[in-house]
């Protein structure tokens, strides 16, 4: 007898994998499955939702639920605070604020943040250290409008990275990863040679009404971003 | 009046952000909240589960639910079949099988796959093309044991990447991203210069009983892996 939604999911998954339900086929409705499995409709719904989130089913309000033609594989990435990331490697964390000033945003960043070119935002440059050695180089533009009370800390004790996670809730954002050749300045900050490959993370977050921050983070050779599938 | 779990989630989120419930604090139990909000306990459970999955709450079976001290930000990555990734960019997809032979796995790969060094596995090298130009270079080790009937296609029509997604279900896996300097051979395959930065994706998948495949995928400059937060 099936009792929980996990049992329903396991059976649905078995049918998909055994091709009892072929790729692209519409599967029976929730009520039909609830009767067949002897469970509540909400239990079937929970199982199908889980499989849809995993990319194995495609659900459309009117057309019913289909087996995905090509299951989209999904991975969940945890994006830790850099201090925690360093400490999880068993190394001591430190950071150095290299720059902190109000500055007119350059055009490329203004476009990315959806503000007028030349708007004055807080420019921050931070070097994150692991065991005293450079671990990541961070360049950040922060919109002071989103800081409660307008009082921006100096970020000497707590990095902007950690302070923002603790203090500013975002509603939406995006993140992109790429490989680039380090510029001379970036290489110098990380103790590399110009042209060395760096792992680049660019992240943009918005509150309901305003852009919060755009950050460009560089990790040197040897850095791996890893997660389970 | 609250009617759905989304309403409950919105109110819980509001309390966390307003610090009515401070970081690290234990929040009221599900039954208490169900009474306060006038909803079923299952509705509260659904909302709290969602916030826990988003990293904002920490749930422990006996100790209750706490507000996370440092919310873990999570991103979901879709891992598309390369053909779909290229077509989504509006370019035509093609691929070329550069190598396909049984070969003894080198030690580093054997360790990664959990097989004895020297085990004979299928070695595959594939160049993925976008608009006729190199898009990604793929080196893959495939365990023939996991292929139903033991009949391995030649992968000329459908790439191993796509064929595996369609035909072999994995139970667990991991994926890692890094930036590396292209070797001479890798650079030649992608039309780059040796030492140019490449975006490296390494993925390992397992079935219940056996390793399925280890793949190392290289994308050249300009490639960005992007997702919403």
TrEMBL record, chains A, B:
In terms of InterPro entries, this protein maps to: Bact_HTH_transcr_reg, Chorismate_lyase_/UTRA_dom_sf, Tscrpt_reg_HTH_GntR, UTRA, WH-like_DNA-bd_sf, WH_DNA-bd_sf
Task: Kindly indicate whether the keyword DNA-binding belongs to this entry.
Answer: yes
What residue stretches are annotated with the HTH gntR-type domain? 2-70
Q: Which superkingdom is the protein from?
A: Bacteria
Which Pfam families did the record assign?
A: GntR, UTRA
Coiled coil stretches, renumbered: none
Record carries keyword DNA-binding:
yes
UniProt organism field: Paragemmobacter ruber
SMART domains, per the entry: HTH_GNTR (SM00345), UTRA (SM00866)
Give the record's keywords alphabetically: DNA-binding, Transcription, Transcription regulation
- Matches recorded under PROSITE patterns: HTH_GNTR
- What name does this protein carry? UTRA domain-containing protein
